[in-house]
Amino acid sequence: MSFPRALARVSSLSATSPGRATKALAALTAAVVVTAGGCGTEPVRSGASAPDDAAPRRTSYPLTIDNCGQKVRFTRPPSRVLILNGTSVGEVESFIMLGLTRAILANVQHYGVSDDPSMVAAIKALPTRGLTMNKNFDVPAEQVLAARPDLVVSTWSGGFDARNGFATREQLAAAGINSLVNPVNCANGRPDASPAEKEAWRHASIESSFQFMTLLGRIFDVQAKAAQTVGALRARVRAVQEKVAGKPPRKVLIAYPGMSMMNANGLPAIMTGGIYDDVIKAAGGVNSFAGRTEDTTRTLDKEQLATAQVDVLVVGAFTPNERPAEEAERLFAAYPQWQASRTRTYTVVSDGVYLGPMNAWAVEKLAKVIHPDG
């Protein structure tokens, strides 16, 4: 479950349990960790062959792209970008890695932990311009419009939903402001999404992270930088895949104890499907709950967790004040039948298993414990 999807899931609690929804939203916002061409493109999963990066070209303006069913026209590279929260950091991290921080007018994405610790300081250094978030934990419409950006970026379509107090894409366009949704998340928060967009969202992958960076390269005329950065990250993932090729996959469980509010039974949030499975696969493993639906995080019960096959435990760090090693020991004590509990085999990740450019870090971390002899 991605953070935007988690946010939507938590928001749905408000009708039946306002107190629980408020607690969950507050926890989600305490420390945010995560998550080319138009929307609806089927992502290339890391287990499949990915095309080599084409020779980068200069962007010719005006540039028009199809983004989540809307035509977005750029006459020049944006220079006043507002990045919405969306409980993600994948977008702002992509800007940083492509050297586009000077174009950021204000950033609301933030976190306190990362698989690349340098990202914490890099994000903290970005301007916020005093923007505040409403009860739905993103910047309300009036603040976005008053900031006069030339581009507003959201990790999901729900970031432009008027029902949550956000500026719509139509409102922004009327004010001369472009908007952009991370293409793989077009269907997230958009009821009229196409079948292709829904399929892309369900099957988000490491390549989805690269596609967004490539798209930014086109929009900002830094295609060479994007190709170089994506190429280097993809090479790191491929290097791991080559090392673990042919080795028997081990069962891997990704658990975020700090997100237990997302589970109806108070268990750690167990991540499965989409990019989680892809990161694990690239590292030579298989998700303990592979093939399960997105509702697993919400509905999993203690019996299901107890009977899961777990060779490697991956503890997700959700806030900077958590103690992952202690959380791992608690899980080992609660589920001594796991193979991971017997061998005390675990590692810690934060944003690397979510949509964004940190996937290579997570793949490398996981591979070291999944196949330590590799």
Automatic annotation (TrEMBL):
It comes from the Bacteria. Residues 1-26 form the signal peptide. InterPro entries: ABC_Transporter_SBP, ABC_transptr_periplasmic_BD. Keywords: Signal. Gene3D superfamilies: Nitrogenase molybdenum iron protein domain. Pfam families: Peripla_BP_2 (PF01497). Belongs to the bacterial solute-binding protein 8 family. This is ABC transporter substrate-binding protein. The lineage of its organism: Bacteria, Bacillati, Actinomycetota, Actinomycetes, Streptosporangiales.
